[in-house]
Each structure stands twice: as C-alpha cells, then as structure tokens.
Write a structure and sequence with these properties.
globular, alpha+beta, five-stranded antiparallel sheet
Length: about 80
C-alpha cells in the first residue's frame, strides 16, 4: 500500500513524496503525476514520464525525500520497539 511521507509545494503544484511497499525507493508525484523516482540508498533522483526537473529542484527533492524516508524508518523502528 502506498504511504504518503510528505507534501511540498513547487511553482503552485502539489509535490508528494510516496513510499511503496517499504522499499528504499520513493516516488515523487507532481499534481498526482509520477515525475521522479528517488533511490534513497544510492541517493539519486531519476526523472520519470518525460519530466524535466531543474537540477536545483532535483537536489531539493532528493534531500526532502531522503529526510522523509529516514524519519519514516525511525517511526517504524519505534513502533516495532513498542510492540
């Protein structure tokens, strides 16, 4: 089940950071259109579906996606410890 990790705004567009199936890969959707895939462990972003994302925005989205993934990982670890 996809899990929303965070939401940002870029040029009046909604940018969602979505994790699928607990993997180390997250999706970046812009206005509900898959725009990029972030490989968290390799720390790189690959534009998808013909999207052109400026380098400075790619860097920003990569940092945000990695941070959201790390926070989610800590949250999950805490939940497991509580059980």
């Amino acid at each position: 089940m996809p899990e929303l990790l965070g939401t940002l705004t870029w040029d009046d567009s909604r940018v969602d950071i979505v994790q699928r199936f607990g993997r180390d890969t997250v999706w970046i959707t812009i206005d509900n259109d898959l725009a990029a895939i972030v490989h968290v462990t390799g720390q790189f972003l690959r534009p998808y579906n013909g999207w052109t994302i400026p380098d400075d925005i790619q860097t920003w989205l990569l940092r945000e996606a990695i941070a959201a993934h790390i926070l989610q990982s800590f949250h999950r670890t805490g939940e497991e410890a509580d059980q």
